[in-house]
Amino acid sequence: MSDSSASYIHMVQHLIEKCLIFRMSKEECMEALSKHANIKPVITSTVWSELEKVNKEFFESYSQSQSSSGSNRMSEAETSELIQKMISDNQSNNSDKDDE
């Protein structure tokens, strides 16, 4: 895998982790990243599934808390703003690494 492919997958993983912090389901995360970060849902789904394999206990607990929690969801505008900030933060972090 090339550095750019690894970097892209790492960025998707980072964005998924942020989605988890904001209590998004897999479907909500796929939709948000598709709409706001232009990441194909199949990519998000694949990376999410790999994260589930590696962190099985976390995702079991996360899934249970998802089904028991109410509707503490962010608005569309909040989601868009959050995703755009995450992308710009990730890009600036990558350019800082490139400078090293």
Automatic annotation (TrEMBL):
InterPro entries assigned to the protein according to its UniProt record, in alphabetical order: CHP01589_pln
Biased composition (Low complexity): 62-71
Region Disordered, residue ranges: 62-100
Pfam families tied to this protein: A_thal_3526
Residues passing through the membrane, by range: none
NCBIfam families on file: A_thal_3526 (TIGR01589)
Record-given protein name: Angiotensin-converting enzyme 2
Organism of origin: Artemisia annua
